[in-house]
Amino acid sequence: MLRHRLLSELDLRLKNLKGSEDFKNGLKERFIANSSDIEDLYNDLYGHLPNSKKLFSQLLDQLFSAYSERSVELKTRDKDKLKEDYWFCSEQLTGMSLYVDRFAGKLPDVEKKLDYIEELGVNFLHLMPLFESPKDASDGGYAVSDFKKVDERFGNLKDLQHLGTQMRSKGMYLMLDIILNHTSDRHEWAQKAKAGEKKYQDFYYCYPDRSIPDLMEYHMPEVFPESAPGNFTFIHEMNQWVMSVFHSYQWDLNFKNPEVLVAMMDNIYFYANLGVDILRIDAPAFIWKEQGTSCQGLPNAHKLLQLIKLLVEVPAPGMAILGEAIVGPHQILEYFGKGRFTAHQCDFAYNATQMATQWDALATGDTRVMREAMKVVDLKPLGTSWINYSRCHDDIGLGYDDYMIANAGKDPNLHRKYLKDYYSGSFSGSPSKGALFGANPKNNDARISGSLASLCGLESALESNDEKGIKTSIDKLTLMQAQSFFSGGIPLIFYGDELGTTNDYSYLEDPSKSYDNRWMHRPIIDWDQASKRSNINSIEGVVFERHQRLIRIRKENKAFADHKNTHWLTLNSPAICSFIRTSEDQSVFCFLNYSNETQQIPESVFNNLGKGPHQLKELWSNQLMEFKSPLNYFDIKPYQFYILSNKI
Ligand code: GLC
After folding, report:
1. Ligand 1, atom 4: nearest CA belongs to which residue?
2. Which of 199, 296, 362, 485 is 20–30 Å from 216 (CA)?
3. Which domain holds residue 617?
4. Which of 556-594 are b and which e, b meaning 16 or more Cβ less than 10 Å from the residue's Cβ?
């Protein structure tokens, strides 16, 4: 009945829309395909509320206005993307995540650095949050006080639009965040709530006393136990407790109220029409809360994400969605959608499990925990992809399951303790220089901070002038990156890592940052030092060239596109991570040695190519290698990797 009404309204809406028939037909098709699901999901979440019908028609109005405000340039880009076989799974994409100010200065300065980005080979930028956020309480921009105003620190909206246009003209892609779960306590909605406006108090989870917060606290983990213990903050101005899962100045939005959804969709459409190619939904695990639960990853959080995906897909089908859920391997799969929403929820998720188990393997010289975890990670559906990374702006959590560690023959508690000690400098044999983040004595949990280079041992090797240590740390760093480049998904370099930047301790001098040691791995780029990259004998030169090579190899081989074409192998040596990537006319065998000892790989691994001998091209060294399967072995040195293609 309702569907009938929606479709008859559609013709009327389309008649009133300006624009070419061709574009409008696309919109019509997408609306017809998705409208029942949009309505069902919305009703499941909000149908019981008295104002639900009114707000639903507001959502639809917004959807159609978003479409009519979308520029012809972006509509054409959407159409081109849809012609490709999942544009975002392409081997052509390599990303970099950067802070505008710490990387370059202001937005126009980033524009001036596009040559550098191109020199590296990167064509997809994640600009860390740049909308207005209070300087003294910003959580790196993740506490937004105005979702549409670019923070003066970075420039203005025109600068952002200009940068976006420049990037598109160079064939680059843009990712921005929508910080969906919370606002800054200085956001207009929070200010109005503080001033006593009931409408805006209902935008947040507000409680007159501790009775409900106390009950909820019992089941809710703490995200920042050291710097922001507890999940609620008392607000004197309104004499109420407000839910603040992250920092006390980040108030959780109440998505049980459909007005919040309407308000946030308005911001999402604003970003879509700025030309965002991938929208990073920050902290999606947290967007729905229920008393008596952990308030993370709840079924309605997934429903809400499905609804948002469809509301975006109809008017802006070229904007893919990344769900920034840093959760265990089983839970992450849910973000790609289940049942009839399989591959129709988030297009991307962070491959946090691969990242964390890589660090596990690097510290132990043993990939068995990774192998266990990959059995689950590998279940990702076709038509979705990973953001692969060795480091990002956040801490490293060891969030894989205990049974995976136990199946690898280790004691989960002792093993995690070893990893934390290894990377935080309390294990004497370790060259790593990092620190524990979010240590929680109540449950013994802790994550790890530190830059890629420092965790790989470069900082300590430089301090002790240890030439061999420097070389080993660069090999480790390259090995870590190689896995994210070749295992399937878009590799996202964290700015500075392409130069081997070590920890930056200047954050300790800044009271707005000193409480959060994640700032040690968020460097301010020293461009004089970066210019050393042209000297191939410098550390910067070696590390930069290696990144260029990784990017080039990825772009030149279609087998690296992510079409569910990664087959993991189990070799006898636990030190070796190995997988095969395939495309119609190519097989690429990847072997990565995570240990400090030379390992042997049996040539019989190539049996599936038919009988030997085989000539394969090693893409990293660009040399032909001959294998005489099945009788022999070949050597792989400590922290070395081979990328062997059967296409010569
Ligand atoms: C995400 C961000 C992190 C931030 C948190 C709260 O996890 O990556 O940096 O602290 O959300 O917004």
Report:
1. 142
2. 199
3. 566-645
4. ebbbbbbbebbeebebebbbbbbbbbebeeebbbbbbbb
